[in-house]
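Exercise 3.2. Students should predict the tertiary structure of the chain below and write it as structure tokens, then compare their answer with the key that follows.

Predict this chain's 3D structure.
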Amino acid sequence: MNQENNAKCSAVSGCCRVESIVSVDERGQMVLPKELRERAGIKAGDKLAVIGWENQGRICCISLIKADQLGDSVKNLLGSMLSEVSR
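Answer key:
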């Protein structure tokens, strides 16, 4: 991903869509399709943070974000929240 794309990618902006359907095997493992890994710039050895959203005590949505981009996403999220609070 280039710098322009990184700036646009955050946990609270943009649109989401179903990229693929994956299966979980008996060991709890799944495979991200090659095309998706290539488009996301995910390479062997990359660390991914697993983000879960809860609804009524159950996780209803799971998202992945590259660990090295997690700090920027948190800053963007908190920055927008702090802007709203300070108004």
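Discussion points: The CA atoms of residues 10 and 87 lie 22 Å apart. The chain has one domain: 3-86.
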